[in-house]
Amino acid sequence: MLKASNNLIKDIKKQKHENRYLLFLDNVKIIKDALKMGLKYKYLFLENDKLNIFDFQENVYLVDRKTIEQLSDSKTPQGVVCVVEYIPNIVEKPKTNFLVIDGLQDPGNVGTLIRTATACGFEYVFLLDSVHITNSKLIRSSVGTVFQNHIIEMPRENFIKQIKQWKFDLLKADMNGENIFKFNNSGILGVVVGNEGQGVSEELSLICKYSVSIPMLNNVESLNASVSGSIIMYELSKQNFLK
After folding, report:
1. Distances, alpha carbon 184 to alpha carbons 56, 116, 192, 235, in Å
2. Which of 2, 3, 109, 136 counts the highest number of beta carbons within 10 A?
3. How close are the terminal C-alpha atoms of the chain, in Å?
């Protein structure tokens, strides 16, 4: 194991700020998930050699705690930072129900939605004008599931043109919509979750074929974006769990 030079650390820090497709993973489980799904590692930085539980032979460096903290985005890093390259997915026609995240900026909400989508068999996620998929908080809140789905970042207007060509129906949550627990649909469907404050954009609302509501008690009017999106996805996929 090599000791990282000052020039290398300086260059890595520069890349961290300039290249948003480099992921600085600081959680052992998430690192394993990323490598399992084929992401290519570039560097491994360790606080001590006992943390070297990986089979890497090249670009493995020993650094001090301060450097780990500088490379990590966690408040309490585990003493390891693995730098991997994220390769954006190409646009692909969904083969399952899919999730559309429309202008959602909170990385925790987006990560939670991606995690639920994975659990519900929604294998495609479209991120429209939202927080970037490489955001470290998003990756942590998805607990590594971000590497399992086919996630596509694209402008909203491009998605609208594409979805019209594919002729898939879209569904959004709306207080005046049909009760989600009474809704039935047999074809592939896209669930649209909108911005925390503004909801689904006007452009996407206009092409949503269905609107559903989530019945609530005690005069509660709405739920967190990730909670409502998760309820809808689970309800649409419940037949998968009844087999």
Report:
1. 50, 20, 17, 10
2. 109
3. 50
What pLDDT, in 10s, does the model give residues 146-187? 888 899 999 999 999 999 999 999 999 888 889 999 998 888
pTM of the model: 0.88
Report the phi/psi class of residue 199: left, alpha or beta, with left for phi > 0 and alpha for psi in -120 to 50. left
Range 98-241 has CATH code 3.40.1280.10: yes
Fold for 2-85, please state it: 60s Ribosomal Protein L30; Chain: A; (3.30.1330)
Q: Is 219 helix (H, G, I), strand (E, B) or coil?
A: coil
| Type of residue found at 185 | N
Report yes or no: 235 and 180 within 8 Å, Cβ to Cβ.
yes
Alpha-carbon distance of 201 to 206, in angstroms, equals: 9
